[in-house]
């Protein structure tokens, strides 16, 4: 063994005066037809300790046919400044720690093909995958047909088991609260991305709002590239006496953006416009005001996703869709 090189199984075998197979049987702790005396076993263990030999994690994975790792992929860069993603990543990490599993986050560069991404995800680095992707993702059918246990989170995806929050109940709770507060015309900031969860909550809100006698004016919320959204511009173009008296936003980030934009334009929240969000993630820095919102248990969803993917890895049957309850939180904005 040369200096600065990690000791190998061959080095241990030479130090102990045995062949490589005997050393492997002892150090792997596996079952074998090779019989090893107690004296030889102790000599091999002592040699490994003297050399500070550590068995290869890759070799162990090949023997066990598992990696002891769970993967997470969301189709792009993972920006943990997002409170939603911070909750998801923290939840997966906590559950992996409890299950004594490693946690591997997969990122991709723009322009990677579906084939390249698929190969990266199923190449044997993880025992199972937690997926957050668009409902019409070209990758999802490939993963659904693969050998890899995959659980979709937040947004149900055809062909894959999923765990989500109750978007339908959340949309209904928003409508019921605003109706009880006397609002009859509501502005709705619709998600600009292809996410089935946000379609569910919007459709549920509209169904409940119409049943309660409210009018809904909808428009696209901001994307990351927008300074102001079309729905915000539309509101300010309406004469003050005819404007909606409440606004519902597809998530909390857009709700905060809308509030700041409208306040800068002289619109008082909640006196002129009540604003309700959806997420309920808490920031370590207390906000200047408490947003009225729907609290979704994103961290619990992520923890449960780890348990589901491990169950599937072990061959257990799991539900096609698991839905977690949400909670209405009354704040200062509605």
TrEMBL record:
Please give the Pfam families that the UniProt record associates with this protein.
LacI, Peripla_BP_3
Q: Which organism is it from?
A: Capsulimonas corticalis
Gene3D superfamilies in the cross-refs: 3.40.50.2300, lambda repressor-like DNA-binding domains
Query: Where on the tree of life does the source sit, at the highest rank?
Result: Bacteria
Return the InterPro entries for the record. HTH_LacI, LacI/GalR-like_sensor, Lambda_DNA-bd_dom_sf, Peripla_BP_I
- Name assigned to this protein: LacI family transcriptional regulator
Give the coiled coil ranges. Answer: none
Recorded hits in PROSITE patterns, A to Z, give: HTH_LACI_2
Q: Which GO terms describe its molecular function?
A: DNA-binding transcription factor activity; transcription cis-regulatory region binding
């Amino acid at each position: 063994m040369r200096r600065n090189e990690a000791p190998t199984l061959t080095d241990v075998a030479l130090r102990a005066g045995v062949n490589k197979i005997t050393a492997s049987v002892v150090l792997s702790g596996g079952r074998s037809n090779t019989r090893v005396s107690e004296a030889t076993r102790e000599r091999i263990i002592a040699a490994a300790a003297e050399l500070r030999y550590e068995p290869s994690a890759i070799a162990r994975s090949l023997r066990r046919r598992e990696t002891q790792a769970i993967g997470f992929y969301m189709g792009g860069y993972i920006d943990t400044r997002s409170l939603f993603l911070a909750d998801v990543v923290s939840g997966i990490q906590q559950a992996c720690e409890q299950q004594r599993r490693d946690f591997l986050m997969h990122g991709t560069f723009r322009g990677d093909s579906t084939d390249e991404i698929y190969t990266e995800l199923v190449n044997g680095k993880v025992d199972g995958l937690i997926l957050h992707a668009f409902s019409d993702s070209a990758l999802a059918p490939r993963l659904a047909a693969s050998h890899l246990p995959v659980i979709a989170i937040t947004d149900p995806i055809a062909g894959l088991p999923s765990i989500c929050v109750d978007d339908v109940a959340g949309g209904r709770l928003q409508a019921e609260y605003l109706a009880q507060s006397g609002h009859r015309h509501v502005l709705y900031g619709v998600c600009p991305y292809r996410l089935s969860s946000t379609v569910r909550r919007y459709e549920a809100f509209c169904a409940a709002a119409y049943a309660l006698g409210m009018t809904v004016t909808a428009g696209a919320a901001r994307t990351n590239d927008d300074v102001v959204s079309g729905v915000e511009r539309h509101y300010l173009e309406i004469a003050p006496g005819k404007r909606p008296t409440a606004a519902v936003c597809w998530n909390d980030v857009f709700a905060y953006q809308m509030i700041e934009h409208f306040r800068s334009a002289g619109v008082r929240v909640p006196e002129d416009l009540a604003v309700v969000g959806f997420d309920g993630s808490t920031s370590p820095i207390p906000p200047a005001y408490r947003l009225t919102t729907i609290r979704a248990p994103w961290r619990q969803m992520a923890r449960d996703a780890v348990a589901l993917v491990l169950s599937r890895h072990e061959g257990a049957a799991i539900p096609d869709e698991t839905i977690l309850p949400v909670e209405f939180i009354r704040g200062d904005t509605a």
